[in-house]
Design goal:
The protein is an alpha+beta fold. It is built from seven helices and five strands.
């Protein structure tokens, strides 16, 4: 790999982990790189097809696929993705992420927002850092599987966006997750 390629990859990886690339900037970079934007009624059909492919590939993995308008959300509970207090992806979850990467490569006219979340145990600062590291681990793995790094944004939300009560162990388990939101490039 040449120095120019290495510098480009390093910059892209830094933007992924830092989550510094805005939606507008990512869209401009992708369109400039030759990926066209979806238009009109084609958006819905494109996202319908991507959703169907994700549901097919992720069946039985523990990852839920939810459609919200034209966006697709993949919810990856932490019990199948990470060990407690760790940001390293569990080895048995790589096959699932490989399936996600194949679909993202096939349907490349989308942006990919990777968001980490935790329960309320521990300090808010610790939870924020852990959620961001976990989201970064997922994004970096998908990029290593040849998904275009310019499509990604990474954010950690810590305990600030629970989907269940933190008053029970079951609720806390639901709150510990990484979500991938797939947004059409329009």
């Amino acid at each position: 790999m040449g120095a120019g390629t290495g510098a480009l990859l390093g910059t892209a990886a830094g933007a992924i982990v830092g989550g510094t690339t805005s939606v507008k900037t990512r869209k401009a970079m992708l369109i400039g790189a030759g990926l066209g934007a979806l238009a009109g009624g084609g958006v819905g059909l494109y996202m319908d097809n991507q959703e169907a492919k994700l549901r097919e590939r992720l069946r039985g993995t523990g990852v839920s696929v939810t459609r919200v308008g034209d966006n697709i959300i993949l919810n990856m509970p932490s019990n199948i993705t990470f060990d407690t207090d760790q940001a390293d992806i569990k080895p048995n979850f790589y096959d699932t992420l490989n399936s996600v990467s194949l679909v993202l490569q096939e349907f490349n006219q989308t942006l990919v927002d990777v968001n980490g979340h935790t329960d309320s145990d521990g300090s808010a600062e610790y939870n924020y850092d852990l959620s961001r590291q976990r989201a970064g681990s997922v994004a970096q793995y998908l990029v290593s599987q040849r998904v275009n790094s310019q499509r990604f944004s990474v954010q950690g939300f810590g305990e600030s966006q629970p989907i269940a009560s933190n008053g029970s162990s079951g609720g806390k388990a639901q709150n510990r997750r990484v979500e991938i939101q797939i947004v059409p490039l329009t």
